[in-house]
Amino acid sequence: MKKILETDRLLLRELTVEDAINFCKLNENPNVIRYTGDSSFKNIEDAYTFLKNYKDYKVNGYGRWAVIDQLSHEFLGWCGLKYDRSKNETDIGFRFFEEHWNKGLATESATACLKYGFEQLRLEKVIGRVMSENIASIMVLQKLGLTFNKEFDFDGHKGLIYAIQQADWQV
Length: 171
Prior knowledge:
By secondary structure, this protein is of the alpha+beta class. It has helices spanning 20-28, 30-33, 44-52, 56-60, 105-119, 135-143; strands spanning 3-6, 10-14, 64-69, 75-84, 89-96, 125-131, 147-154, 157-165. It has a single domain, classed as Aminopeptidase. This is Protein N-acetyltransferase, RimJ/RimL family.
């Protein structure tokens, strides 16, 4: 298990196949995946296969990371950066179990990810993609300093892209 980041409450580490049960459970909640465009895994084996084949760390040097509570060591969800080679852009994303919503975890973990992206990886820009109905995630992106950039088609829904340049990043 490779630790990537640490905050006051959280530890962010690389996802592993040992996360398959939690990863599967996270996507089973329709409220969690409502605005993601993703579907749930059919079973734990599908989640295991996804994680086994997850190559972002090797290919890009970063990716989505497991978010772990420092005190309880509980898997809370994931957060991280994802590089899209076809668009030559990196996005910030996060997903948490519903019982952990509204506790500032997305903002706390995503702030650490942006700091890492701009200071360690020397990224020039990070974007956030969100469905227009996903007010909670829009608010997180705004708290992070991302500003509205443009609209796009998000799997048949009105999507919004928020962005922040390295030069505009302030911790």
